[in-house]
Amino acid sequence: MLEELHVFAIVVEQSSMNKASAILNLSQPALSRKIAKLEQELGALLFRRIGKRLELTRIGQLTYEYAVESRQQHLRYLKMVADYKSVGRSSFTIGASLTTLQTTLPDLIQALTKRSPELDIKAITGKTHEIVTLVRDHKADLGIVASRIDDPSLHCIPLFDDHLVLVLPRNHFVMDKGLPVIGDLDGMPMILFSKGTWYRILTDELFDKYQLSPDVRMEIDSFEAILRLLHTCRAGTLLPKSYLRPEMIADNDLTVIPIRELVDSKRTTSLIHAEAESLSPAIRLWIDEIATHYKRNGRSAADAPLG
Asked: For domain 164-263, is the CATH number 3.40.190.290?
């Protein structure tokens, strides 16, 4: 339909089939067939003939406005691609919080480099407020953070929602009385992530809300290390759902327990970037690529990993 819309817009702007035919290097019968095809697809007439003059119908006017908008968007896209090719940039820097670096970033980098093997991605880690500063100061091209950011100098694009889940060694003693509930976390031996991250803050808020006092055996800043130590310590843990993969659970002989209250511990992982005008065409394309993927899937990273 894009070609027919272009032809239709030229006819309207020239107010003459003859002039449009000459500009498009089409015979008048061929031009008429394209207009007829567009009318057939839309199921409506685009022109009224008043003597030798063509007059737009109301649907014709709406279609012309859409054709102009589509043409402008197409030209913007072609310019962006041309700019990207001329600049030749195939690298960018992502800022990510420590938990995001372990949960979201591996799948993201794998997917992007799979599509563009020449792409060179650099990552800087830090706490969420540090990532915001890096992006604001243009020391990182974009940031991936596990929260929504309200900053007038930045754009924040929500990607997906995430929540905590309980992870236990198989045949853990708490399973003897059936599926655990939120109250079973009280006094449970647990290995938790180190303090100072959104994930640990979220965990502590959950404990405060339900007045829980787990027996914290260790605090570690590595999800992988936590999983490996659960059996040794006969302990449980709370992890972001986006981090867990079936093979990871199987390899460590663990089980994931659904608890309703944990689903309410929702956080939104977002992409942040500076004003689009200050970014290169290549960076704008990659931002659109990332945002479109998550929008297309409409699910959490745990349910729909990039790739």
From this structure: yes
The dotted CATH code for 91-161+267-297 is 3.40.190.10
pLDDT block averages, 10 residues each, the chain of length 307: 85 83 85 89 87 84 90 80 62 84 82 77 87 92 88 89 91 81 94 85 92 95 91 92 88 91 86 84 80 64 38
Q: Give the DSSP letter string of the chain.
A: -HHHHHHHHHHHHHT-HHHHHHHHT--HHHHHHHHHHHHHHHTS--EEEETTEEEE-HHHHHHHHHHHHHHHHHHHHHHHHHHHHHH---EEEEEE-HHHHHHTHHHHHHHHHHH-TT-EEEEEE--HHHHHHHHHTTSSSEEEESS----TTSEEEEEEEE-EEEEEETT-GGGGGSS--GGGGTT-EEEEEPTTSHHHHHHHHHHHHTT---EEEEEES-HHHHHHHHHHHT-BEEEEGGG--HHHHHHTTEEEE--HHHHTS-EEEEEEE--GGGS-HHHHHHHHHHHHHHHHH-S-TTTS---
Q: For the chain, where do the domains classified as CATH 3.40.190.290 start and end? A: 164-263
Domain 2-87 has CATH 1.10.10.10: yes
